[in-house]
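Q: Mind making up any chain with structure tokens?
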Amino acid sequence: MRGWADDEGPGRDERGVDSAVAAALAVDAGHDVTGVHLALSPNRQTLRSGSRGCCSVEDSHDARRVADELGIPFYVWDLADRFTEDVVEDFVAEYAAGRTPNPCLRCNEKIKFSAVLDRALGLGFDAVVTGHHARLEGGELRRSVDAGKDQSYVLGVLTPEQLAAAVFPLGGMTKDRVREIAAERGFGVAAKPDSHDICFIPDGDTRGFLARRLGSLPGPVVDATTGQRVGEHEGTYGFTVGQRRGLGVAVGDQRPRYVLSIEPVSRTVTVGTADLAGVPGVLTGAPTWTGAAPELPFAAQVQVRAHATPVGCRVSAGDDGGLLIEFADEQRGVAPGQSAVLYEPDAARGDRVLGQATVRTARERDETVRS
């Protein structure tokens, strides 16, 4: 197999050690491997290094050293324009519309397994090998054996055709074992810290980043119970549903408040107490499936955030080709724009990813449950 080892992936674990070991394992397996680093910013010198992000000049130098040690060809692909349009601008537009996007999922969908994979296949390669912590077994996408590092959530958007041309060598091992392999081989990235936060926000200040892009758009913060204005804000983009900290509200009791809803047109952020923060289900947009589309309705597990605990659910047909996902237990912090990733429900096969759909709206408690 001719494999294209992509050294720069989105997400908190791709700082070089994962992709270095993935490439090494592909070489060990006898594949014809070529390394590629993705340049995703028009000014990579501004991107942070250390443990705060990825895509820096430092990272590309580390990747080149690993490729030299493995004896494989190495290239840098400039996908900055595509990344800006499909990931960064999408991120800004989603927040401006009162939604909460996941840029790592969007990067996998639009960059790694669209732009990169398409180019690699066009050049005659058979697959893209990445350092994602997920498993592929018989063409089925599954969680990593290392639950703490699992990245199947941000891969749930992939299609069967994309998965057929993907290789994830690290899904069957822990991150500690990955670092051990890197150290055994003498890779300089063996002890490099994992990345965190969003790679295109250098200082980690998402609210500040959005303020610089969207400007000041002040409005009220309103308490759901009393209807009273309890605070002011400089932009609804500074909030996400479920948020508790940084609300800047003054209320008459000591109970914590959570963001319940965001209305960007009226610029209103509504907050409420914990008993109002749970929702029984969501309506989504059209789903994508990692395999054959299951017959509706069906039972599943659903995960609504990258690090959320999966919960049992019932999935049925929604409106306009979307899904209605009803939770077994009410969930907090379910925001429009998030991805609801579906997994098989039973304990034996509950690590298999079925697909995903983007949350459109939350169901109200008094809505009639569909049969």
